[in-house]
Amino acid sequence: VPIVVLTTEAGDTLKSQGKAAGATGWMVKPFDPSKLLAIAKKLLG
């Protein structure tokens, strides 16, 4: 199951921890909804 993390934190350490926990995507808020949709389509496609 693809996991996309939506967060207010942009640090590399947190991104690494998220990826280590199994996240397949990462977006920092605020984000463009069209970019989130593109990531979702890529992961589910």
Explain the layout of strands and helices.
Layout: E1 4-7, H1 12-20, E2 25-28, H2 33-44
Parallel strand pairs: 1-2
Describe this protein's structure:
The protein is an alpha+beta fold and 45 residues long. The protein has one domain (4-44). It has helices spanning 12-20, 33-44; strands at residues 4-7, 25-28. The protein has a two-stranded parallel ribbon. Helix 1 links the parallel strand 1 (4-7) and strand 2. The protein is flat. The model has no long low-confidence stretch (mean pLDDT 91).
In short, what is this structure?
With about 45 residues, the chain is an alpha+beta fold.
* Computed Rg: 10 Å
Label the structural class.
alpha+beta
Q: Tally the beta strands.
A: 2
- N-to-C span: 12 Å
What would you call the shape? flat
Tally of structural domains: 1
- What ranges have pLDDT less than 50 throughout 5 or more consecutive residues? none
State the helicity in percent bands.
Answer: 40-55%
How would you describe the oligomerization state of the chains in this entry?
Answer: single chain
Major beta-sheet overview: 2 strands, parallel
Order of secondary-structure elements: EHEH
Strand order of the largest sheet: 1-2
Mean pLDDT over the residues: 91
Number of helix segments?
2
* SS strand fraction: 15-25%
